Predict the 3D structure of the following.
Amino acid sequence: MVLILNYDRDEASKISGILQNLNIEHKVSFSETDLLKASKIILPDGKDAIQVIKKLHLMNLFSMLKMLKKPILGINMGMMLCCENIIGMEKVGLGFFPLNTEDCKKYNLAEFNPFRSKIKLKKESKLFANVDFNQEFYFNFHCVVLENEFTTTTIELKNNIISSSLEYENVYSILFKPEESGKNGEMVLKNFCELI
């Protein structure tokens, strides 16, 4: 069973809708018991990363997420949660990727949001099997991670190479919003849910 962590009801329900259409068994929950039962975990987008981190600590899920060795997919803000440092605050993220997230204002990128863009494959990834790279993905973000050793796809904005996805061992993260990215967004979610 795939667990969508329910720290933002609206965002979790959007991902749930896609998984329902794909006939993928899943649950939207914020409970420790469901986290332990899940085979895979999705960290959906959210409105405030710091508030989400506080909620995860309060429910004892933060430490559990770090200890579990299950596949995890972070989406947009969920991608930021998977990093170590979030906008100048050290060691507040889950630390799956030893990376810093940066405010998009630092690179004058805020004016672009929201936007659609093609992404460029940098490394092979099971997450992007059968994805059409000629189609655009939907982006609407407040933080970015520059290209690095964990980057699997990128976008370029104002001469900055931005990671549109990251991957390390059993942790995957995407910056684009799959629910707004058409068939490609569905395919990425399907690929994650079907990982062995």
